[in-house]
Design goal:
The chain has 305 residues and is mostly helical. The chain is built from eleven helices and no strands. The protein has helices spanning 2-30, 38-55, 60-82, 87-107, 140-163, 166-177, 180-184, 189-215, 225-238, 243-259, 271-292. The longest helix has 29 residues, at 2-30.
Length: 305
């Protein structure tokens, strides 16, 4: 039963990070936006639902709405001053924005109405799990896996519909034509970039919400820039510009990230070095993919008109 529980845990993590990966793929894979602050949406979604459900004792569904709204709003706001910048400046600004969000929650210490929300560097515990009282301890992970898979399916369908619509074709033209192509067609490039960031932020917030309620505890240390690197690895390995590739990439990277913990049973190595080997393995995987499959494991299907 322990091994089955581990597989369910892996599946839940794959689903949550697949949502985050697909949202980044919309911004980078389809629009060409070098967003190095994707973890900010993840963080905002986690904290928004925590405040709504734990501090104000509201429902899980309201927490989802709050997470998606706040993260989408943040994506919209940071895109306004950066929409006209080049790709390298965009990366710097979004990286800084992600750190601003993390440092904000690292230093705040709200206590609302004497509730259990502690915050700050201590993190927040006792985050309620939705419908937990209706299930036994052995069956609840399967139920939560169902919630994650439904959210992933809806995310995939919505973003896939967007990227295959006229809206998506404009995003691709921005990516391919360095603004000139879209502008020649009379499109407002800045507005489309802002929309892409906001929509990606919405689904990044959803992933953060699911993460917080699954673990029941969050802290600012969990939302460091390294998490953005892991999501980027998923997009690069799976295949940028392809939503199925983004999902496949999340499956592979999560497997790499979690399987190294079992090396200690076969290789005489300490835990600190073992933890570092996780990132080494992911880095080697990225190098191999970039050398032999530059477009990722699943190539983008480009329509020829």
């Amino acid at each position: 039963m322990g091994f089955i529980n581990f597989l369910v845990y892996l599946a839940i993590m794959m689903g949550i990070f697949a949502i985050l990966s697909v949202s980044l793929n919309l911004q980078y894979g389809f629009t060409g936006l070098a967003n190095f602050g994707q973890v900010a949406f993840f963080c905002l979604g986690a904290y928004a639902t925590t405040i709504v459900t734990l501090t104000f004792n509201q429902s899980f569904f309201l927490g989802i709405i709050a997470s998606m709204f706040l993260a989408g709003l943040f994506g919209y706001i940071i895109a306004i001053p950066t929409a006209d910048l080049r790709e390298d400046y965009w990366a710097i600004v979004t990286l800084a924005a992600g750190e601003i969000v993390r440092i904000f929650f690292l230093n705040e210490d709200w206590v609302v109405g004497g509730g259990p929300y502690r915050g700050g560097a201590y993190g927040v515990g006792d985050i309620p799990q939705p419908f937990r009282s209706h299930f036994a301890a052995q069956t609840y992970p399967f139920f939560y896996l169902g919630i994650v898979l439904v959210c992933l399916l809806l995310t995939y369908l919505i973003i896939n519909r967007l990227t295959n619509s006229p809206f998506g074709r404009v995003l691709k033209s921005i990516r391919e034509g360095d603004d000139n192509l879209a502008q020649a067609m009379g499109k407002d490039v800045k507005k489309f970039r802002i929309k892409a960031m906001a929509i990606g932020g919405i689904f990044g917030g959803l992933a953060g919400c699911l993460y917080a309620h699954y673990y029941g505890f969050i802290s600012p240390q969990e939302f460091v820039p390294l998490e953005t690197f892991i999501v980027w690895a998923m997009v690069i390995v799976g295949g940028e510009g392809n939503n199925k590739g983004a999902i496949l990439g999340s499956v592979i990277i999560i497997l790499f990230y979690n399987s190294t913990r079992y090396l200690k049973d076969y290789v005489p190595i300490n835990e600190t070095t073992l933890a570092s080997l996780r990132m080494v393995a992911i880095g080697v995987l990225i190098v191999v993919v970039m050398l032999f499959m530059k477009e990722g494991l699943i190539k983008e299907k480009k329509r020829i008109y």
